[in-house]
Amino acid sequence: MAERTAEKTVAKKKAKTSKASIILPLILIVIAVSLGFFSGYLFWAFSDLPKIRQLEQYAPLESSIVYSADNEILAELFVERRTFVPYFSIPQHVKNAFIAVEDARFYKHSGIDFVRIVGAMIEDIKAGGFVQGGSTITQQLAKMLFLKPERSINRKVKEAALSIQIERHYTKDEIIGLYLNQAYFGTRAYGIEAAAFTYFGKTASNLSIAEAALLSAIPKAPSTYSPFKNAQKSLNRRNYAIRKMLENGFIDERQHDAALKEPLPTIPHTRKYKSPYFLDYVKNTLEDDYDEKLYTAGLKIYTTLDYRLQRAAEHAVDFGVSILNKRGRKNVQAALLAVDLKTGGIKAMVGGTDFWETQFNRVTQAVRQPGSSFKPIVYLAAFNQGFSPEDVIYDGPISFTGRNKADVWVPQNYEREYRGDVPIRFALAHSLNAATVYLADKVGIKNVIETAKMLGIKSTIQPYMPSALGASDMTLLELVYAYAAFATGKRFDHLSVERIVDRDGLLLEEQKAAPPKAILDNLAVEEMKTILRAVITEGTGRAAMSLPQTVYGKTGTTDDYVDAWFLGFDNNLAVGVWVGRDNHRPIGEKETGAHAALPIWMEFMKNE
Questions:
Q1: According to its UniProt record, which protein family does this protein belong to (predicted)?
Q2: Has residue 35 got a pLDDT over 60?
Q3: Are the beta carbons of 99 and 137 closer than 8 angstroms?
Q4: What is the model's pTM?
Q5: Is 102 assigned a catalytic role?
Q6: Residue 237: φ, ψ to 5°
Q7: Which of the residues 63, 216, 372, 373 is marked catalytic?
Q8: Which residue in 76, 102, 314, 527 is the catalytic one?
Q9: Which domains, ranges and CATH numbers included, belong to the chain?
Q10: Is 143 within 8 Å of 149 (Cβ atoms)?
């Protein structure tokens, strides 16, 4: 009996030994496979990690700023509204506000806060759901810069690995600085500097404790905690941030109590474009060369515009249009352009009465008949052939065959009477059509067209006599630069940008225009000034004699009072004004250049 029992015991031991010999290798195999799988997973997960050294060339999308010549900010151009500020320019209490809310142990961990992770897990278990995250500021930075916003174990593993690498290569202050420049704060504000302006109208360096606390509260859910959308939730979240700053020793009781009393902002600070027609023109000028960099590279664009003159121009247009409205001329548009006679730079541009209603720029895009404001080009062509202001020309009935031989064109003077033999100076001063056509016939219409091209007019001028009276369409921009040539003898390129520097202050380019080209001799300039001054002293522009400075110019009116013009200059600026309707309907009876456009021109020039 005892022997059988012993045999059974031995058999059982053998069986156990046999099973163990089988199970143990299996366990070892499973462990090996698991380790292999895990190692393979880690290798796969980390194989496409971005290089942390890329941060050394960190260049976030940053707003470009456009300035006037007198250093007024005209606009921000952006995809993401952001102005990068170095970490050492951000006050410590601003950094502390974010650390208190997002990562209280920021200065103690090495990218991953295991203490916080355990605490977050406990809180989640108690709540029966995901209520608290364990991501550090470094992890959030890694996610913002390098990873897609997806919820997955793979992303969390990569996030942790990147965070450790970031912490190894960069200081804590550099990390918090990158985080604050990258974070999104709602209301189209990216980065702490743009957020400070958007919410408080100030720079990040001037934020108070309460303001910093509010901004620290927003990135978690920008719409939910926006003071402009959910004031109470925003207040609660801000006060929570202030309390966390106190708990972490970043502020004292007195600062805590004072911060709680500060009101929330009620409206965002947004920059509307100043001088919007000009700004649109500048963007169109630069987009071919800079493409998306114009909106993302943090450029500083210094333009030729004088903002004081721009405001005077806008006032003058409003002034003139309001007078026309009082005369019953409703829905009339007006445009004004002023050009510097020393540089050719655009100093003021108003392309219409309201850019936000219509972006059509009547300075650069509207092609209209210039009427009598084109006539000085005919007279310049004559001076270039040896005529002088006191030479006599004939003002009387004259006819020309049109495109079809059956068509006969007979130019009529505005007052429907002829003056006979008159000096050239008198003919232009009184805007005599017949005399001008007579002179154009003597000079040759082809020579008139060539003179217009020499002055920089690129619009097509039809080779027929009505073109001598301004029957061919062109822009106000072209005409003003032509008058700048009358004043100086030089043809200027259309200059709107003085210089462009990059985000580091390095000059990218200077003056996007060639030097002016001398095209008229001194005698021709003096002759042009003589006849254009006669327009003011004795002709259709006599109202301008009231101006304190010496001015020169020419009125222009087209058939049926569709377009009214005044083009002229003083010693500093060439300025042109157009008045009309976009649909080419008449402005109204007797609304000539002298009556509709000259008052706007004078209002601007008296405030020059």
A1: In the N-terminal section; belongs to the glycosyltransferase 51 family. In the C-terminal section; belongs to the transpeptidase family.
A2: no
A3: yes
A4: 0.77
A5: yes
A6: -70, -40
A7: 372
A8: 102
A9: 80-261 (1.10.3810.10), 272-291+301-366 (no CATH)
A10: yes
